[in-house]
Design a protein that fits this description.
By secondary structure, this protein is mainly alpha-helical. The chain has one domain (2-240). It is built from 10 helices and no strands. The radius of gyration is 18 Å and the shape is globular.
């Protein structure tokens, strides 16, 4: 565990010093949420855009956290940082755990700022309990996205190798998970693919949370699956992590 905290402190120090990455990680989602507001303003009045706001807000955090963390870890490998850690006796699990723990703070800031902006821009009137629950869901999804980015980075030798994963993961997340339409009308194989993607469960939870009759028992399974992705990706990333070739 000591190695994990050492790496986490190093990641936090690195993030603090990389102002460009911090700005892109925090300001980037805020800009995209504003663009989402401009898009929704063009929709006809009969469309309830508020029901789409939180799911799309979660997706924005998911997308940027995944891409940015994948690219950053690939850079760490190229620079020889991971190789030096392994030579220094750090286990793969402690390395992945340290990076994940280090990004917890960034994921928390992303979730808070994006949620606050969305509520303000779209004039959403949720009570405190609903806002807290929405934050938890977006935060959990951000952590899953970080883990997914770390896992994908293990298959990339340089930054360009990350980009082919965007259409493979992100586009199905848009079309097959209930983000735009309910997946019930999709072919069975498409529904199965959608259920393999973590944002499917985040969207399910969000749709339930914003209902006036929501109770926590309605989404316990979805919460469990979303949390399970964190541990599953931690194990997979630890098994596939390798040094620079």
């Amino acid at each position: 565990m000591n190695h994990t905290f050492i790496i986490a402190r190093r990641v936090l120090t690195q993030l603090k010093g990389d102002r460009r990455f911090l700005a892109l990680s925090i300001i980037g989602p805020l800009i995209i949420v504003y663009f989402l507001k401009l898009l929704f303003n063009t929709f006809p009045p009969m469309i309830d855009v508020k029901s789409y706001t939180m799911p799309f807000t979660a997706f924005i955090v998911h997308f940027l956290s995944f891409i940015l963390c994948a690219i950053l870890l690939v850079q760490e490998r190229i620079n020889g940082t991971l190789e030096r850690m392994m030579i220094g006796g750090f286990s793969k699990t402690s390395i992945i755990g340290g990076y994940t723990l280090g990004y917890f703070g960034l994921a928390t800031i992303q979730a808070i700022t994006v949620l606050a902006e969305s509520i303000w821009l779209f004039k959403l009137s949720y009570d405190t309990k609903t806002v807290v629950l929405l934050f938890i869901v977006i935060w959990l999804l951000a952590i899953v996205s970080v883990m997914l980015g770390i896992f994908i980075s293990t298959f990339a030798k340089h930054e360009a190798h990350v980009f082919p994963f965007i259409p493979l993961i992100i586009l199905p997340s848009v079309f097959l998970t209930g983000l735009i339409i309910k997946p019930d009308g999709l072919p069975l194989w498409a529904q199965i693919i959608g259920k393999c993607l973590p944002i499917h469960y985040a969207v399910n939870i969000i749709h339930e949370i914003i209902k006036p009759t929501y109770t926590i028992t309605d989404t316990l399974l979805d919460y469990g699956i979303l949390t399970g992705y964190i541990f599953a990706l931690l194990v997979l990333a630890s098994l596939t992590l390798k040094e620079t070739e």
